[in-house]
């Protein structure tokens, strides 16, 4: 059920890229395959591989993995009001998570840092490349 949604997100990112616009997308792409779809669209599903250079080249996406202990994240979820994600689903999210790693274009940022430190670390990664 996530595949059409991820493909639609890829299409939005592709459109922004074609318009030479930068975009920030926040979503929980917990599995490596989900991130492949965001980068390569339907070709990631068909071949289980990123697109090859020259054939509708894959998007350049920096994945930011916000990492932290389950108790910190649970505490933040408890403080949210009107959010669709119930705290009871957090453990299943941790169980599903396949943390990004090389060769994915990713950084891991600790949620134990302050919000200004988190933003600064992400900005540095974006501007460096």
From TrEMBL:
Molecular-function GO term, any one: ATP binding
GO cellular component, one term: cytoplasm
Pathway(s) per entry: Carbohydrate acid metabolism; D-gluconate degradation
Keywords from the UniProt entry: ATP-binding, Kinase, Nucleotide-binding, Transferase
Key word GTP-binding present: no
Top-tier EC class: transferase
Record field: catalytic activity: D-gluconate + ATP = 6-phospho-D-gluconate + ADP + H(+)
Gene Ontology biological-process entries: carbohydrate metabolic process
Assigned EC number: 2.7.1.12
Family as reported in the entry's similarity comment: Belongs to the gluconokinase GntK/GntV family.
This protein's name: gluconokinase
Species of origin: Mesembrinibis cayennensis
